[in-house]
Amino acid sequence: MPLTPFLAAAESAARAAGAVVMSYYGRLNRGETRYKSREDIVTRADRESEALLTDRLLGAFPEHGFLGEETGLKPGAGRFCWVVDPLDGTVNFAAGVPCFCVSIALFDSGRPVVGVVFDPTRDELFS
């Protein structure tokens, strides 16, 4: 099966999620950050980025599974599953350190077949 449509969807979704993340960069209010554990934080940017990734990827491929860092597993009907970290480097992001990204992978029957990392602060995409 050609991976081109999956890669294109992941790249587009990563760029869009990066735009969401950047819309909050340097502008978070205290109420938009909470702790998942003593050292693990989640921000409004994390949640909104993941919601966008879910909508984009499952909108394009509704039969696929989806594992998001913030929302957990949504099993799919087929052999494919997206795995996302909508804001990889949340601690840096929340502290104003410009070293964070959006990370997306696609697994086919448990084997990684697509990977995309987008750094919105530098507009660099790796796939």
Gist of the model:
This protein has helices at residues 4-24, 44-60, 90-95, and strands at residues 33-35, 41-43, 65-68, 72-74, 80-88, 101-108, 111-119, 124-126. The chain is α+β, with helices and mostly antiparallel strands. Helix 1 (4-24) runs antiparallel to helix 2 (44-60).
Portion in strands: 25-35%
Shape: globular
Oligomer: single chain
How much is the radius of gyration in Å?
14 Å
Low-confidence runs of at least 5 consecutive residues = none
Order of helices and strands: HEEHEEEHEEE
Q: Whole-Å distance between the termini?
A: 18 Å
Write down the overall mean pLDDT.
91
Strand order of the largest sheet: 4-3-5-6-7-8
Structural overview:
The chain is α+β, with helices and mostly antiparallel strands. It contains 3 helices and 8 strands. The strands form 2 sheets. A 6-stranded mixed β-sheet has the order 4-3-5-6-7-8. A two-stranded antiparallel sheet has the order 1-2. α1 (4-24) runs antiparallel to α2. The longest helix is centred in the first third of the chain and has 21 residues, at 4-24. It is globular.
Provide the fold topology.
Layout lengths: L3 H21 L8 E3 L5 E3 H17 L4 E4 L3 E3 L5 E9 L1 H6 L5 E8 L2 E9 L4 E3 L1
Parallel strand pairs: 3-5
Antiparallel strand pairs: 1-2, 3-4, 5-6, 6-7, 7-8
Helix pairs in contact: 1-2
